[in-house]
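User: Let's play a game. I give you a shape written as tokens, and you guess the letters that built it. Ready? Here's round one.
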């Protein structure tokens, strides 16, 4: 299933700062910590905690967020379905990166071991 251009545009323009509290609430509801969330984000993007806080404060959109990221070489090992899309079938690079992050947050919330999440 491929995404539509309209869907890809909406994802690119969405503010990371607006989604971050939802990620945090999702994982905390399942007993995980903010530090674990930051560890997952750092693994995927290479961002330090300071850089992550700066991006949130500046309310960057996902395009700007991932333009500044140094994506982990093992990110392509992230597979599965998230938000109704099979990650490996997503053709738009930015949308795929956002879904990588969504999938990692989902796995964290599902109490997967950190060693498994951080492939």
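Assistant: Ready! My guess for every position:
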């Amino acid at each position: 299933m491929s995404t539509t251009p309209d869907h890809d545009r909406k994802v690119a323009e969405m503010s990371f700062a607006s989604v971050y509290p939802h990620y945090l609430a999702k994982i905390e509801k399942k007993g995980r910590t903010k530090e674990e969330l930051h560890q997952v984000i750092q693994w995927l993007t290479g961002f330090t905690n300071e850089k992550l806080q700066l991006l949130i404060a500046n309310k960057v959109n996902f395009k700007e967020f991932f333009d500044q990221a140094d994506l982990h070489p093992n990110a392509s090992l992230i597979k599965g379905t998230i938000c109704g899309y099979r990650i490996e079938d997503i053709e738009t690079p930015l949308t795929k990166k956002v879904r990588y992050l969504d999938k990692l947050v989902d796995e964290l919330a599902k109490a997967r071991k950190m060693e498994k999440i951080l492939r």
